[in-house]
Amino acid sequence: MVCLYPYVSIIASLLFVLKFCASDSYVAAVYEHVVILPEHTDIPVSPEEALALMNRNMDVLETAIKAAAQQGAHIIVTPEDAVYGWHFKRETIYPFLEDIPDPQVNWIPCTAPERFGPAPVQERLSCMARNNSIYVVANIGDKKACNSSVPQCPRDGHYQYNTDVVFDSEGKLVARYHKYNLFMMEKQFDYPKEPEVVTFDTPFGKFGIFTCFDILFNDPAVILVSKLKVDTVLFPTAWMNVLPHLTAIEFHSAWAMGMQVNLLAANTHNTSMEMTGSGIYAPDGPKAFHYNMETDDGHLLVAELDSRPHLSATPPATVNWSSYATSIKQFSCDEPDFPGVIFSDPFTFTELTTPEGNCTVCQKDLCCHLSYRMAEKREDEVYVLGAFDGLHVIEGKYYLQICTLLKCKNSDLKTCGQPVATAQTRFEAFLLSGTFGTRYVFPEVLLSGIQLAPGKFQVLSDGRLVNRHGISEPVITVTLFGRWYEKDPPQPQQASLYGYS
Predict the structure, then answer these.
(1) Other CB atoms within 10 A of residue 357 CB
(2) What average pLDDT score do residues 199-206 get?
(3) Tens digit of pLDDT for each residue in 98-157?
(4) 3-state DSSP call for residue 58?
(5) Closest by CA position to 266, among listed 170, 164, 401
(6) Measured between alpha carbons, how far is 483 from 444 in angstroms, rounded to an integer?
(7) Which InterPro entries match (predicted)?
(8) How far apart are CA 238 and CA 349, in angstroms?
(9) Percent of the chain with pLDDT over 90
(10) Topology of domain 25-311, per CATH?
């Protein structure tokens, strides 16, 4: 009898080496998860009950992780809140938290689970990574004891952090990130004292990580890309879609293009809270994306990406976002300006009443120029050109400059800026530009049915957003979404227990 086991072992080792040797590309996966939520309660559950719920969610995640590995994925990102859900107060989330050590301790929870005390969640996630030879990115909760007599320490004697963890293909903890920009409903968590900028290297590029609301701010999102030059950003999120400019797939794809970086965005799926939209995004557009408000199903995306996009053979030209707009005279529009509102921001609009034309609308220092040609001007659909230059103050305070071509909800101009999901008007041509004061501008094109438009538009080096390949699909909005980080007000007191989010 011939024994094959040594040869099988050698072949398996060779396959593992080939999978993770340095290469020009890698296979990424993200999973949009329908989270099994805890019951509403003002009384903390037992640790056993907490773990039982988390294991139910991790059962689903493990199936997705195995499927991704079988499709050749090197890394998979799972969503924010995917393990334990939401509906928590500070006291009620505590049984769901574990002490997550600094990755410098060189720890594989799968093989040494009790090294830092009970850590069943970290153990299981580590084993998922190790058993499937895949990097696993997950969002869980961290707890850190402190001296309650110290002013910065919460009164209950510990910090609680919304935390991302990364386990490598051996199951080792290689990254830990505490979310810095907490959303308004995250009263159960504390702010870290300082923004954390977390990176780690792999054979397939340099990675950075942050969570959900962080993407709208300079720290840590812009710092990771502009200063630390990561190739890929890992992005667990629980994103509630806000039309017309802040749907998940729309803004996350635009952010990846504007920052010229790969972005792996894994969203939770909860249609009652407008949560859906995950994607694998590259600097030149989405490689895969998913948006589904019709059914309550999880969804796995797998796609190949360049490992080091900034070293590509044809690097993108640097964009001067105001170059074209400041070089031309303002166009006169057929209709007078009128005020409108998008997500509580006061826009200045002007209606596009003809099938084609040129138009300029201004607000403060921002002037938005549009040249366009519709395939047909429909009487039942109204489009406007809008501008906003100011501080957004609803779920956070951050400075925006936005130029947008968008469809109104109906023929009543008072509805311009309200959510719209479908359209019938096609554009043969559009050219949008603005006199932006910021260099951080994110180009968005959203089509009817909440769909992206990969390959159907481009940004020129002088800041013009233009369509490609003739007639578009029906358009909901064409937008240049600018973030002027230098004009943001100071961040809230990070040491506050009750921190503003």
Answers:
(1) 16
(2) 97
(3) 999 999 999 999 999 999 999 999 999 999 999 999 999 999 999 999 998 888 899 999
(4) helix
(5) 164
(6) 13
(7) Biotinidase-like_euk, Biotinidase/VNN, C-N_Hydrolase, C-N_Hydrolase_sf, Vanin_C
(8) 31
(9) 88
(10) Nitrilase/N-carbamoyl-D-aminoacid amidohydrolase (3.60.110)
By annotation, the residues acting in catalysis are: 80, 179, 212
Asked whether the beta carbons of 392 and 400 are under 8 A apart, the reply is yes
Place of tokens 């099938």: 355
Indicate the pTM of the whole model. 0.93
Is residue 331 within 8 Å of 359, Cβ to Cβ?
A: yes
The two structure tokens encoding residue 260: 């010229």
Given a cut of 80, is residue 10 above it in pLDDT? no
Where do the structural domains in the chain lie, given as residue ranges? 25-311, 322-487
Do 354 and 377 contact (CB within 8 A), yes or no?
A: yes
Give the Å distances, CA to CA, from 500 to 402, 496, 497: 26, 8, 9
Decide if 367 contacts 330 (C-beta within 8 A).
Answer: yes
Dist. CA 9–CA 389, nearest whole Å: 62
CA distance 214 to 182: 8
Which sign, positive or negative, has the C-alpha torsion 117, 123, 126, 130? positive
CA–CA distances in Å: residue 459 to residues 285, 356, 357, 466: 11, 21, 20, 6
Q: Cα–Cα distance between 155 and 90 in angstroms, integer?
A: 11
Q: In terms of C-beta distances under 8 Å and separation of at least 24 residues, what long-range contacts does 310-313 make, across chains too?
A: 310/229, 310/231, 310/260, 310/261
Is 293 buried (19+), middle (13-18) or exposed (0-12) by CB count in 10 A? middle
In this prediction, residue 1 has a pLDDT band, given cuts at 50, 70 and 90, of very low
Q: What is the pLDDT of residues 455-492, one digit of tens each?
A: 999 999 999 999 998 777 999 999 999 999 999 998 75
